[in-house]
Amino acid sequence: MYNKNNSNLVNSNRILTYLNISGISNIYKQDVLEGLDLFSSSFIGVVETWSEKDNFCSSVFKNFYCISSPAVRINVKGRASGGLMLMSSKSYVEDIETLHIDKFTIIIKCKLKYSNAKVIIVLVYYPPSLSISCVLECLETLEDILDPYEKEKIVILGDFNARVGDCDCNSLLALNLCLSEKRNSNDKFITSRGKRIVEFCSRNQLTILNGRTNSDIDGEYTFVDTIGSSVTDYAMVNQSASSCIKDMKVCHVSHSPHCALQINL
User: CA–CA separation, 155 vs 223, rounded Å?
Assistant: First the structure.
């Protein structure tokens, strides 16, 4: 049963921050660095960097290990599309192994310092232009990679450009009083891509954290713009990781219409 008083995001536990930054230069701006307290994060996942460089992690994050996937140029004119960067704090993480990297996904396995715990972090960006068949292919690849690690703690973060409404994919949460068994969402709309994401979660016993935590019990919009608001950025965990979640909140970010997600592990 969900207990509102069991969760507090601002504490000494590990923080995992995810954000769609709408251009890598925005992450280095003071209001973003300070507003999200990024240097206190154990993990930082960033999508839509729009950077075509193979490695674009600057000295600002010198205390982090950095793995990146460059953006892809589709047209001669204009900016490149996508781009991902996954950073792990050197203070909290050791023995990092890259399990998979392509233009849509980064997957790492790492051991947390001062414990025997291991965690799989997955960062995803599926652009709106990606066809349903390509999305299904990406999800199938993701399943194949994660299957041998089903007993490990798995956290999936990203912009799926999919709307799942208030679908409740999985509720294996009986042992975690910090998570609501019922999922809520301000976004009630379900897209065909969203249905595929729900099916993927159900098959793999993954729980969507959006709309389940004390700080996001209503399921806040993660994309807010003049053209409308929606939930397209998600955090998902398997049963092993769900027992470690203390809270997740949605944070408005300067310079991007997307909100950040911050998870307390």
Answer: 21
Pick from 215, 50, 198: which is nearest to 135 by CA? Answer: 198
CA–CA separation, 247 and 20 (whole Å): 20
Q: Which domain holds residue 117?
A: 4-264
| Degrees to nearest 5, angle at CA 235 with 233 and 240 | 165
- CA distances in angstroms from 17 to 117, 127, 142, 255, listed in the order given: 19, 20, 21, 17
Instruction: Give the separation between CA 127 and CA 134, rounded to whole angstroms.
Output: 11
Number of domains forming the structure of the chain: 1
Q: Tell me, what DSSP letter sits at residue 215?
A: G
Token duo for residue 174: 């009986």
For the stretch 39-57, pLDDT in tens is: 999 999 999 999 998 776 7
Name the phi and psi angles at 187, rounded to 5.
-95, 110
Lowest mean pLDDT among 12-26, 28-42, 95-109, 211-225: 12-26
**CATH number of 181's domain:** 3.60.10.10
Do 229 and 223 form a contact (C-beta atoms < 8 A)? yes
Place of tokens 């970010």: 253
Tokens of 242: 């769900």
What is the amino acid identity at position 182?
A: K
Residue-level length of the chain? 265
Tens of pLDDT, residues 88-104? 999 999 889 999 999 99
d(CA 4, CA 179): 9
What is the pairing mode between strands 118-125 and 153-159?
A: parallel
- The span from the CA of 113 to the CA of 132, in Å, is 40
